[in-house]
Amino acid sequence: MAHETVVVLDFGGQYNQLIARRVRECGVFCEVKPYTTPLSKIKEMSPIGIIFTGGPNSVYLDSSPKVSTEIFEWGVPILGICYGCQLMAHMLGGHVVEASSDTAREYGKTEAHFDTSFPLFEGLPEDAVAWMSHSDYMEKVPDGFVTAAYTENCPTAAIADTSRGFYGVQFHPEVNHTENGTEMLRNFLYKICGAHGDWTMGDYCKTAVTTLREKIKDGRVLLGLSGGVDSSVAAALLAEAVGPQLTCVFVDHGLMRKNEGDEVEAAFSKWDINFVRVNAESRFLSRLSGVTEPERKRKIIGEEFIRVFEEESKKIGAVDYLAQGTIYPDVIESGTGDAAVIKSHHNVGGLPDYVDFKEIIEPLRMLFKDEVRELGRELGLPEYLVMRQPFPGPGLGIRIIGEVTKERADLLREADAIFREEIASAGLEGVMNQYFAVLTNMRSVGVMGDGRTYDCTVALRSVTTSDFMTADWTRIPYDVLDTVSTRIVNEVSGVNRVVYDITSKPPATIEWE
Ligand code: XMP
After folding, report:
1. Does residue 261 line the site of ligand 1, with CB under 6 A?
2. Edge-to-edge, what's the strand order for the sheet holding 321-323?
3. How many helices (H) and strands (E) does the chain have?
4. Which of 208, 223, 315, 400 could form a cystine bridge with 323, CB 3.0-4.6 A?
5. If we measure between CA atoms, which residue out of 225, 203, 306 comes closest to residue 273?
6. Residue 199 CB neighbours (<10 A)
7. How far is the CA of 217 from the centre of ligand 1 (A)?
8. Residue 88 and residue 76: Cα distance in Å, rounded?
9. Which atom of ligand 1 is nearest to the CA of 347?
């Protein structure tokens, strides 16, 4: 079943994925496409509406991104946001100019007045804060358009041509700082584009299961399961679709967190699938023996993972499909045509190309991370798997500074488990995006009971971030840190000192190695 679709045409702005997520949160499927996508391709998607995103350019420059004028003759409603609004105005005969500093240039939260007789603002307050970020403005609106909102400095904060269903907003409704922004998008979708809201995870799940069954038929599927959110949800979906034909290979390299291997295994025991857990701790640790250089450790772990995976797939025999947990942010093309600055996170060092398979299946490639989590819930995965924080493929190997040994990994596992337990019991799990313990290679003097100790230092790391490219260290309450520190020193033998990492990214990275 095809879903009602909205196309988000990407002009290179910074909030473009956010627009798509908001639209989907409103129950309408949408896809982000570069502005260079030919109109014929867009028409093939039969969208019920189009959104032009913001972007860093000025529409009046010849070199700026444009669209084919035919898009305005097609009869599909369009919402232009920021650059997208100016583009529509410019291409339809309005006049966009650079704002001088004392006129309509606006940045940040701005009081705006909305004409609520327009469907875009229907049912919303007349006065509200809008998030602005523009140095150009519409001096004259195109014929057929009228002004639908204004601010003190900008007479054209929103424009509308109700007869054609064309709307433009100078501000960013997708950003939380814009009051009622999501409601405005909802109005565009439901009141202007006529959406019915057929994008729910329950529906998606049913459709995806049927589609996967039709595609795979009686073929065999192999999935490398890391225990992370994406591969776990991909496994659950495939298990639901083609259960016995699926083999999940979970390589336990001995560098997982406490109980993690058992938890992953338990979560998948309810499905009728072939679950192969390879306990490869000793071979990983023996290859890591004596190695202290971080990049060398990463390479060894990545390589060894592939070797194990290779051996296991040979045992399984002919496999038709290789499944991967790729998600939508990994596949969106950049709107500007420039190389997208996306940090590639290879789960455990890339996938092997030796497996003799017909095709790669990526059942999550249309979903955002929050949708993947929702789908996981829909499929009955436990909350601790669905809400799992990111965990690097090389695991504790890059959180143990210096040599990785079983003793040191066990020590870190205990310290890390205490940290996670205390964060959970303080109800702070939702406050930070990633938190863990690091075993440093430092020893220091302490005193316990009446005796001198000369033991290890454990560092705690916690960050708040939306994209993991930049991150702020989390302001954990002192009393929580105190409990964690006391427990670690008392309960984990070999540790006599706990420190908290108060460095943001940049200049530090989230992981220590
Ligand atoms: P850094 O340390 O670069 O980490 O600030 C950013 C995010 O990426 C995760 N990370 C990895 N994830 N394989 C992964 O799957 C890796 O090799 C890897 N290295 C870092 C890290 O945990 C953080 O969330």
Report:
1. no
2. 274-279, 246-252, 221-224, 321-323, 359-361
3. 14, 20
4. 223
5. 225
6. 21
7. 36
8. 14
9. 15
Burial class (CB in 10 A: 0-12, 13-18, 19+), 448: exposed
Structure tokens at 134: 């523009």
pTM over 0.85: no
Residue nearest to atom 9 of ligand 1 (CA): 392
The residue written with tokens 């990492």 in the block is 501
Q: Are 433 and 464 in contact (CB under 8 A)?
A: yes
Residue 429 tokens, joined: 């799990």
Using a 10 angstrom Cβ sphere, with 0-12 exposed, 13-18 middle and 19 or more buried, the burial of residue 195 is buried
Supply the residues annotated as catalytic: 82, 172, 174
Cis peptide before 125 (omega within 30 of 0): no
Nearest CA to ligand 1 atom 21: 392
Position 20 scores a pLDDT of 92
Compute the distance from residue 274 Cα to the ligand 1 centre, in Å. 29
pLDDT means per 10 residues in the chain (513 residues)? 90 89 94 94 97 94 94 97 97 91 78 98 97 89 97 93 98 93 98 96 93 96 91 96 95 95 90 93 98 94 88 87 87 53 38 65 91 95 90 94 98 98 95 96 94 97 87 96 98 98 94 96
**Tokens for 35?**
């502005």
Question: Which H or E run contains 242?
Answer: helix 229-242
Residues 6+ apart with CB under 8 A from 453: 445, 446, 447, 496
